[in-house]
């Protein structure tokens, strides 16, 4: 099975440059410019102010209807979108594959067309197949599509909330620059849409991303071609180092990924014990990172496997802030998609 | 208006605020982004000079309360920052141009979501008429009767390097704004009108 999209490219500037166009969909961060990301984060700051009020309600999206269409299990992402929509006064309809016509065999596209025919404004889609939101975006002309996670491909709203959290804590200067920060992403990068979107996001914001974890769980194209692309500028932004004790040195941000249980039986790991010994985020390991380094996790956590309990709930952890910030970032995106020329 | 006119108008507005409220007790000055915020700070500086009191200044972004976001240029949210709260306060709302009144309507909706002020008063640098809602200003820097085909541009030192109010005819205005959005016909925020 092809597991990842290649991220190598001859020229980093071409890769990171994006022409500004009014945005209709949020599918991944690859088509976001740095300026657009910064604008989303700035809007999210205003949205967080709204979330801090006694009365958490503004009328910005009154009369808008949002559908969360989830073909995969999720609690936080779905609840986060639902809260974001409701705080902005949109009506939110939750739809799951189980219990819907999908069980009767209706295709994703036909479900999408049905939703469009009902006059829905925004579809928030989670789907086990990479690329599913692109299919909807391509064929639905009246509806905005937000990718809430597609297969192994992308999870752009998670990446934006991670960027927001890091900017909030470590950003320098008036614009909260992430330039030069070292971000270590640890664990099952191969199967992680969170990691893939975060690589785009952090790279565009000028941070340096280091991937660490078992070699079997690293994107093979990154490993195999690491020598070939060593001269390209992208390689200077994304490094792979399977030795976590070395990779974590001087890190500003350490992000643990969930080790999905099914990977243990699929031959990717000799044993969970070995994973814990070499790649768990522990107090000893975190001591090698920069003082004040942040520990992040997209959730849900397997405490005691990819992250120790004392780290998960310790002073360096911003895992709960990530959840709060997720609502603010999703509010910013929902608002942005319904304003502007052409809407 | 030239820079001297703007300075005198803001000084007079500050005196009127003091006169009408019999001092500056319980006042909070709330500036509407972008230029209203700068005007609010200048009025507060005047109050400090005339009365020797520090009146708190807050900022308000009304984008989430507008009824006309659709079809506008991409909306950029700016911080709403009212650390002192407005519960029981006399709020002086400040903006640069009063035109249709829709910005002020949105601002009042935003304020009442944040608390229950004792009073809301409105201070405006320039009133150009053509109201679409029953709203009037309590303090006016200058009344400037305009044609609906004219556009008004307020420039301030803080944002534009100079204090002035310029009247722009529609044709010129279109030219000036053409790269942004030339279908816009009357609800632009950033300094031009409301």
Task: Describe what this molecule looks like in 3D.
The complex is a heterodimer of chains A (343) and B (194). Chain A has 343 residues and is an alpha/beta fold. Chain A folds into 2 domains: 158 residues, Rossmann fold (3-Layer(aba) Sandwich); 163 residues, Aspartate/ornithine carbamoyltransferase (Rossmann fold, 3-Layer(aba) Sandwich), CATH 3.40.50.1370. In chain A, 39% of the residues lie in helices and 13% in strands. In chain A, the strands form 2 sheets. A 5-stranded parallel beta sheet of chain A has the order 7-6-5-8-9. A 4-stranded parallel beta sheet of chain A has the order 2-1-3-4, with helices on both faces. The longest helix of chain A has 20 residues. The radius of gyration of chain A is 20 Å and the shape is globular. Chain B is an alpha/beta fold. Chain B has a single domain, classed as Rossmann fold (3-Layer(aba) Sandwich). In chain B, 31% of the residues lie in helices and 23% in strands. Chain B contains 5 helices and 7 strands; from the N terminus they run αβαββαβββαβα. In chain B, the strands form 2 sheets. In chain B, strands 2-1-3-4-5 form a 5-stranded parallel beta sheet. A two-stranded antiparallel ribbon of chain B has the order 6-7. In chain B, helix 1 crosses helix 2. The radius of gyration of chain B is 16 Å and the shape is globular. Chains A and B meet through helix 2 and helix 15 of A and helix 3 of B.
